[in-house]
Each structure stands twice: as structure tokens, then as C-alpha cells.
Amino acid sequence: RLVPAGLAAGIAVAVAIMAFARRQMSVAAALRHGLAHHAFILAYQPIVDLRTGRCIGAEALLRMRRDSGELIGPDLFIPIAEQTGLITRMTERVFELVEQDAGHFLARHPDFHIALNISAADLRSASLLPSIDRLLQRTGARPANLIVEITERGFVDPATARRALAALRERGIAIAIDDFGTGYSSLSYLESLDVDLLKIDRSFIETIGTGAPTSQVVGHIIAMARTIGLRMIAEGIETREQAEFVRRQGVEYAQGWLFGKPVEFRTIEQLCAIEAARPPGEMSDE
Ligand code: C2E
Ligand code: MG
Ligand code: MG
Ligand code: MG
């Protein structure tokens, strides 16, 4: 042996770390470039009411367009944006994009919702509330038009999370726990935070109908959430069987390829415009 095994392993790890750091740096540079050159766009996925089949809103999902035209998905860049602190600027951009894409539509459709994803760092950021207020002021959208989605990672600092969520709720903005079931928060903790919606993670939805032992879990999660009065959105519904299962268990809303993939907002407008109209009997201000 030229190099002892322990040292060789150490060198391998060091090389891997350097490669990772280089890659992360180049991604961070690409993200900065993207922010400066308006390369970020939002795709919108319909959210439907399982009881009526109607579209009640859409989730805004971020993508980056490379100079080559290729679209990069958020799983590749959000973690690096979070590690490098670029995420707060990116979230500000998301609010600007929602304003451009959907502001006009939201002002005319009080029952339509846009769900946005925010990161743990956004809860600590001084720019979150001003971004929201600017969107509302400039468009005439109402706080009730917005749903803010936070994963359980957002609660690592409970005091900060509590303050930020209270400020959102005071404005009348709904709060959803994203990817529920993949973290460690208990339902009783979420109940104490006074959240409005739970998004049941796709990994649970995938087990429906498989007969796997884990397929029992999703029914229990739904039953517990119902017990404490939380409304739910099932994520990643791809089959009628999954939709029927969650609907029978009392889940109110769903998202997934069965109902629609993420698309540009104009398509959502066409899909949802009529359905988002006020319920019959309500006054129209148009
Ligand atoms: P998420 O918020 O849980 O969003 C759901 C993801 O599942 C989206 O992936 C969506 O395209 C995908 N999906 C929806 N329905 C189906 C289905 O039926 N089958 C399958 N296989 N997938 C489905 P996407 O757009 O790649 O986003 C991934 C994650 O990136 C999001 O997960 C969210 O955590 C994060 N993300 C997206 N946009 C933003 C953003 O603006 N800010 C932040 N902080 N995070 C974002
Ligand atoms: Mg989400
Ligand atoms: Mg989710
Ligand atoms: Mg998810």
C-alpha cells in the first residue's frame, strides 16, 4: 500500500467535498445570474376541491430557464439557494412573478387561491411581509387569495416560526404545512401553531392500494388531521383510485397529475376561470 486506508478514505472525502463546493459555487453563480437576468418563471398546478371537482386555486412552482432554454427544477437549486442565503431574494422574485402572472386574475376572483412555497429562512427575513403587502397593494388581491406553504423544516426555530405565522394569520393569509408526514412535527404541535391546511406528502399517497403495510399510515394521518379539524390537500394524486380513497376519507382538496401538471398561468386561467367564479347568489362587483 502506498497510502494507508484511513488516509486514502480521508483524501477521497476531501476530494468529494471540494467537488461539492465547486458545484455549489457554480450553481450559486448560476442562480445569481438567473436573478439578475430574469430567468426565473413560475409554473402553476391546479388545486381541486374533491367534493365538487372544481379548481379552487393553483400552487406556484419555481423553475429556472437556462440560457439554452432548458428548464431547471427547484429540487436542484432551492437547497443551494437556502445554503447560500440567496433564497430570500428568490422568494421576493416569486412574489413579483405572482403579481405579474396572476395579480389581475386574483383581483377579479376572490375565491381563487395561489399557494406559494417559502423556506425557513423566509420566516426570519424582514422582506417577507413587505413582499406580501406589495403584492396585495399593487394588484387588489386579498389576503384570502393567498396560501403560504411551509415544510416542517420551517419550525426548527419554533419562536421565529410562531411570530411569522401569527403575522401572516393576522393578515388573513392561510398557512399550509407542506410535505406533511416527512418531518417530525406532531399534529398537536401543528394544532398549537394554528395552521389551516395540511398537505399530505406524495410518498404516502403512493402507497394507496398497494397493500403494503405502510399503506395503512395514510388513513391514520387523515383521521388524526380530521380529529383536530385541519383541512387537507392530498399531493401527487396520479390515479382515480388514490383520488377516490382520499375523498372517501374526508380529504377536501387534491393536486396531482390526474388533475393537471404545472403549466403557465394563462392555461390555469382557461382551466379555472369559470370554476373560480363566485358561488351563485353572491354579489358580483364586475
Ligand atoms: P412541493 O411544494 O411539495 O411541490 C410538489 C412537487 O410535486 C412539484 O415538484 C410538483 O411538480 C410535483 N408533483 C405534483 N403533482 C405530482 C404528481 O402527480 N406526481 C409526481 N410525481 N409529482 C407531482 P417541483 O415543481 O419539482 O417542486 C419541488 C419542490 O421544490 C416543491 O415541492 C417545493 O418544496 C420546492 N419549491 C418549488 N417552488 C418553490 C419556491 O418558489 N420556493 C421554495 N422555497 N420552494 C419551492
Ligand atoms: Mg408546496
Ligand atoms: Mg408538497
Ligand atoms: Mg412534496
UniProtKB/TrEMBL annotation:
Its EC number is 3.1.4.52. It is a multi-pass membrane protein. GO terms for molecular function: cyclic-guanylate-specific phosphodiesterase activity. It catalyses: 3',3'-c-di-GMP + H2O = 5'-phosphoguanylyl(3'->5')guanosine + H(+). The chain crosses the membrane at residues 1-21. Keywords: c-di-GMP, Cell membrane, Hydrolase, Membrane, Transmembrane, Transmembrane helix. It is an enzyme of class 3 (hydrolase). One of its GO terms (cellular component) is plasma membrane. This is cyclic-guanylate-specific phosphodiesterase. It comes from Pseudoduganella umbonata. The lineage of its organism: Bacteria, Pseudomonadati, Pseudomonadota, Betaproteobacteria, Burkholderiales.
